[in-house]
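Run log, item B.
One chain of 353 residues. Sequence copied directly from the ordering sheet:
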Amino acid sequence: MMSMRVTRVRKAPDGKEILVFTLVNKAGMMAEICNIGASVLSLHVPDRWGKYEDMVLGYEALDSYFTNSKYLGAVIGRHANRIEGGALELGGIIYELARNEGNNHLHGGNRGFGRVIWDVETANASVDSVTLSYISKDMEEGYPGNLQVSVTYTLTADNALSIDYYAIADKETVVNLTNHSYFNLRGHAAGDISQHQLMIAADYFTPIDENGMPTGEIRAVEGTALDFRNMKAIGKGMDSVEEQIIKGKGYDHNFVLNNSGDIAKKAAEVYEPISGRRMSVYTTKPGIQFYSGNHLEGADMGKGKVYYKKRSGFCLETQYFPNALKHAHFPSCILKKGEDYRHTTIYQFHAES
């Protein structure tokens, strides 16, 4: 039997209620979703012995999601990842964005979508689903057009968390939404993720410069530390002396997925051998950012009073390629006036016996 519980935490200074939705499927898998940043607070999945652990990193105090310097669990928008020079050009007009990572724009700006309170559109216990919505006004964070956004989280009967993204604008703009959950399949407090095994179904990746910005090149993964076409331990190449690993301080790269937006084809898979947990990723997006938690430094208190250290969680952020507006051969993140933006990402879990 599926179930949902809604916890009203308190009212924020702007009068909006802070809400936490607890979704539980018939198998006992549980997800907690908060309307601060439409964030995934927790995701409880069984291991090979049937023991449940929380798979995602998060904060001890809900108020930390209003600052959330590491974007734990948050929905990222309008544009996930990096935009070179903190500016974009549409229709011959240059729009200045926040330069919140050196001279570049990162993850939608100073607040973005991950540090604001979203509205509740629907909450449906019969299908274990909640839809949160947000209206990003014209020129918010420098982006043109009024943008209506909604994100639907659904916990399915077969132990998958499905995320459906929708957006529509009244002016040409750019949209690239993702979820920035950090996963650790041994449990959020288990520490180093180097023994996790990873597969990414990508023959190519987009190399970065010293600022983490894609150069425009699309390079084959073959013969590099970024070749995850066959399952291998994350730690095997995480401290490689290869130029790309040095520039990313580990893995922080966009992969060009082979599935061409076909959600029926697996985009990535992660296996943790001690717990036996396996996570498969499916998406309609053309790219995925694999980030090995290189900048976690244990400064903020996590759940259970744990301080998350470097590489204690990994991200698989489905996306359009970073800096796509600067490179015409990258898939376009431009959303035309009145067009529907629709994408889905699925994180599917099961445990090896």
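Observations after the first pass:
- The two ends are 24 Å apart (CA to CA).
- The chain has a mean pLDDT of 95.
Flagged for discussion on Thursday.
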